[in-house]
Amino acid sequence: MPRPFTPKAITANALLEGDVIYLDHKGQWVRDLRQARAFTEAEVAEAALAEAAKDGMVVGAYLTDVKLGEHGPEPTHFREEFRRTGPSNYFHGKQEAEAHV
Amino acid sequence: MYKYNDFDEAFVRARVAQFSAQVARRIDGSLTEEEFRPLRLMNGLYLQLHAYMLRVAIPYGTLNSGQMDQLAHIAETYDRGYGHFTTRQNIQYNWPKLPDVPAILSDLADVEMHAIQTSGNTIRNVTADHFAGAAADEVADPRPVAELVRQWSTDHPEFQFLPRKFKIAVSGAKADRAVIKAHDIGLYLREQNGKIGAQIIVGGGLGRTPMVGKVLKDFVSLADLLPYLEATVSVWNTLGRRDNKYKARIKITVHEHGIEDIRARVEARFAQVKPLFGGIDMAMLEEIQAAFAPPAFREAATEAYDRAYEADPVFRAWADTNLSDHRAPGYAIATVSIKTPGQTPGDASADQMRVLAQLARDYGHDELRISHEQNVILPHVHKSDLPAIHAALKDAGLATANIGLVSDIIACPGMDYCALATARSIPVAQGIATRFEELKLEQDIGPLRIKISGCINACGHHHVGHIGILGLDRAGVENYQITLGGDGTEDMVIGERTGPGFAYDEIIPAIERILATYLELREAPEETFLEAYRRLGMAPFKAALYPEKEKAHAA
């Protein structure tokens, strides 16, 4: 039996900067997972991914598991936690960008 | 050192121009990512977790002060002010932006450097003993051979689409400091009847299926060396398993066909290719050898060194751990630790790179080396200059006296950067180094090689660590397996797994238990961890690591 579909976000890396991006509700790429669209239906998610992957300005789009938190989608796996935060040895990447907001 | 000739210069410039156009075509949409990816990989450009990563070759780990200054300039101009020295004698920049990469490659070309074949299924950057040309135990300088291999393998038309990547390493000394037996081909330069040649080791490797390299041929003269290498790579290029990327490396080919069969095929192929070389390789080698003539070593008194050694305990501790024997009287090889406890192994800031470049200019015959252990070496320093060098290193935060000790840890970038990683490596290395600094046990424990990889691919050489740590993803949680007894020298041994892995917050206490057991059970302070492990075997360390299991067993 296929496993039940769990919520997913669409993520990729930006072509020019190389940083992590997520697809939001308007079909725009954003840099904060909390603003990403959480897909709850497999077919809708697959169709949106197929469309997103056509964007020449992004690289390696894929579906990633998320759970729905108070402020929006949150990662379920530590790899995605690092992707949305940055490395642990320096205050670089997304954590730094966020601190500057 | 080797200087680019007109051909090298034109080749590297042409490649920069090609790649600049390819980047432009990718950005304007003429190239898809699928089309662009192999092109960027050929030029060392990866896309990692948070950003692009550019891997720049430091051929056989040798560079001059101008090149080091340029690496600092690139770190500051296009990156985050630092670079990461790797276990393959490369430097990696973790934060370049795609539109800047052509300019970086152009800046590299200005100092005779490039990122060509630092990725992809090609012959990669050739590595060598980092004490090359300086070590007291050296039979022949491995760098001329390594440079010849670099020239031969760069853009070699037959070897651009190999079954998998291919790594060659060269050592010319008695002690193996270049992990020769863990390479696809390893060369030990030897002297036989007054002539230099190489023992050819084939089929070594770490990764998913670690294997110790086997002797393919005991002695190949320099005149036959390049055709023999070409024959070997050619045999594998034909036989290699392109159907399965996990079985594509030459170690599997050798394993599946047997060394005898491979040897026979190589000999047959060698007979075909040898006449095609026509001696051009030897003419080139002679030219290259001239470029590696030793510097003009000076003869001077070493009292300044002796005085500092007597008077300054901090200098003495550094000299005792970080200096190695040089072949010239009055000289030493100084290893600069890029492993200050708490810092990222192998990361040097732009300022630190400039200090190292200046020291090479002022005191080091303008030479620097990068070791696979992720440290920087001043290969030729006169002992009388060492107190001044040490003082300058102290000011730059580079005077850590820990070479070959607990905190001199090899660690791959792991999941803090790498897209392939299954767990983090860097914080584990930082944690171990910081913990043992607190315990003040480093000197007491003595020689120890801890090596950490954040995935099965083993960039952190964990299989050949006296203590190896492998980070895995176990059901969505970081988990660390330990191996003991690995050895990366000429007597290479693959470490043995202790048992089940440890969680992220358990791994440092686990290492502490292993070393407490060693301190308790060693016969004398002179018995190193590796020697004690070989004498005692796994049992006492296992008992210390898994006490509950032991209890269950006893009950």
Descriptive keywords:
heterodimer, A: 101 residues, alpha+beta, five-stranded antiparallel sheet, globular, B: 555 residues, Sulfite Reductase Hemoprotein, domain 2, Sulfite Reductase Hemoprotein, domain 1, 4 domains, six-stranded mixed sheet, 21 strands, 40% helix
The chain pair forming the largest interface, with residue counts per chain, is: A-B, 24 and 31 residues
Assembly type: heterodimer
Query: Count of DSSP helices of chain A?
Result: 3
Overall pLDDT score of chain A: 94
Question: How many DSSP H or I helices of chain B?
Answer: 19
Q: For this structure, what is the CATH homologous superfamily of the largest domain in chain B?
A: Sulfite Reductase Hemoprotein, domain 1
Summarize the structure in words.
The complex is a heterodimer of chains A (101) and B (555). Chain A is of the alpha+beta class and 101 residues long. Chain A has helices spanning 42-52, 78-85, 94-99, and strands spanning 8-14, 20-23, 29-30, 58-69, 72-75. In chain A, strands 3-2-1-4-5 form a five-stranded antiparallel sheet, with helices on both faces. The longest helix of chain A has 11 residues, at 42-52. The model of chain A has no long low-confidence stretch (mean pLDDT 94). Chain B is α+β, with helices and mostly antiparallel strands. In chain B, helix 1 (6-27) packs antiparallel against helix 2, helix 10 crosses helix 11 and helix 14 (426-439) packs across helix 16 (507-521). The chains are: A alpha+beta (101), B alpha+beta (555). The A-B interface holds A 13, 15-20, 56, 59-60, 76-79, 82-83, 86-90, 92-94 and B 26-27, 29, 32-33, 47-52, 80, 94-99, 344, 347, 415-417, 424, 426-427, 430, 473, 476-478.
